[in-house]
């Protein structure tokens, strides 16, 4: 049995097989994980062989949408949807401080909570 040693060729063919599988009615299997932390939450999205340029994130009020598309090399206007998921964000998320980072083949969307959530204050009683 002869092994293919050209890693670039293997990456290209694996990506094409994944796209063809999706177009042929199959599914692309993204991995989505949400970690809730003390000061915020992180949404982790990993889709094999998808570049950071393929991801798009949209925020509409408290609805966060994460999607990924594959751009055709032949036609720059042709895009194949690979993944789309909506998240309803809770009121404690500070919408103005949401950010996203792509590292280690994963998209990380960081959702910090409002800092006022952690502050204790005294409330005066009126009489």
From TrEMBL:
Gene3D superfamilies, per database record: 2.60.40.790
Residue ranges spanning the membrane: these are none
Q: Coiled-coil regions in this chain?
A: none
Q: Where is the SHSP domain?
A: 23-127
Q: Which family does it belong to?
A: Belongs to the small heat shock protein (HSP20) family.
Name of the protein: Hsp20 family protein
**What is the originating organism of this protein?**
Adhaeribacter radiodurans
């Amino acid at each position: 049995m002869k092994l293919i040693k050209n890693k670039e060729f293997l990456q290209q063919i694996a990506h094409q097989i994944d796209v063809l599988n999706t177009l042929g009615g199959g599914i692309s299997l993204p991995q989505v994980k949400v970690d809730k932390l003390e000061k915020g939450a992180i949404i982790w999205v990993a889709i094999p062989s998808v570049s950071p340029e393929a991801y798009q994130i949209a925020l509409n009020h408290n609805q966060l949408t994460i999607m990924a598309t594959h751009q055709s090399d032949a036609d720059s206007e042709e895009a194949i949807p690979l993944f789309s998921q909506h998240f309803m964000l809770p009121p404690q998320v500070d919408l103005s401080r949401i950010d996203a980072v792509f590292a280690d083949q994963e998209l990380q969307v960081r959702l910090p909570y409002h800092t006022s959530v952690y502050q204790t204050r005294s409330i005066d009683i009126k009489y």
